[in-house]
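Limitations

Structures in this collection are predictions, not experimental determinations, and the ligand pose is part of the prediction. Treat each record accordingly. The example that follows, with manganese (II) ion as the small molecule, is included so readers can see exactly what is and is not provided: the inputs are given verbatim, and the output is the predicted complex.
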Amino acid sequence: MLVVMKKGSGDTELTGVIHKITQSGLTGHVSKGMERTVVGVVGQTYPELRDMLELLPGVEEVIPISKPYKLSSREFQHEDTRIQIGDVTIGGDTLTIIAGPCAVESEKQVLDTARAVKEAGANILRGGAFKPSTSPYQFRGLGKEGLEILALARSETGMPLITEVLTPHDVDLVARYADILQIGARNMQNFILLDEVGKTKKPVMLKRGMSATIQEWLLSAEYILSQGNRRLMLCERGIRTFETYTRNTMDISAIPTIKKLSHLPIIGDPSHGTGKWYLVPPLALAAVAAGADGVMIEVHPNPDQALKDGAQSLTFDSFRQFMAQLAPLASALNRKLPASPEERGSD
Ligand code: PEP
Ligand code: MN
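Predicted complex:
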């Protein structure tokens, strides 16, 4: 249920509405937009509540929402969410370019990659220190040492970091290092983990589960939002289909669908979406053309020797070529690319 406040109504009326909602054993989440203030009522609502809320001073109307997700919906918040991290804005006119290795392997590998992707125009560095692994015999990450390497790369390049947190127990540790907490596909429905990252003040990127419907994905987003963390973005990383040529099927249609249903920024991940390096640039372009707020791309100094996901990793050269292909598309779509070091002038 959404309570739409009258234009010109003030904090007293808003407090009255929240009070009534709380008294009824429910929670009210406020969205102050340019046009209107809306209170999302979360919990087990009942029909009489609508009449009661409609009688309160300052209330324009009460709209029942039939969708099970509320706070992630466009009805709750009409304007796109923008997430500010230093001078990087996710969800604005500027595309967000996240790049880096699948896994942190060594200081040199991360520093070399960070410098190369920054030079080519990326504005966020990725790298997994805690790696989810289908097989227990695969590389599972360097853990805390990996986080320290990433932090070193951030202080060298100034790029914010995104890295995955695998368990509720690691949230505090990872949040001490990361600028964005990544929830991986395998954990999209780890509800305890979603609650925990929802309690932090860190931006979160929620990847789509490999067999998750869009509704299930938005309900997972709801876990994070309803804990009070509104700095949330989504990531389409491909889903399981009958096709075996590609690792996953990159669901491009999910991007404009999310844009229609939700105000949350969405990032395309064609590396996991395809599993093949030569499919990464075309699918990244397709994601941007379909309205993505940015892309996340795996890049490795030597994909042949990568401990994880080498087959889908771009070399420094192929990442540079991709960025050159992206430029005319971005300008045709009126989207900006992150400023290059020369444009920034400082470094
Ligand atoms: C990753 O980003 O390296 C990763 C493990 O992705 P996913 O959770 O989408 O498989
Ligand atoms: Mn990977």
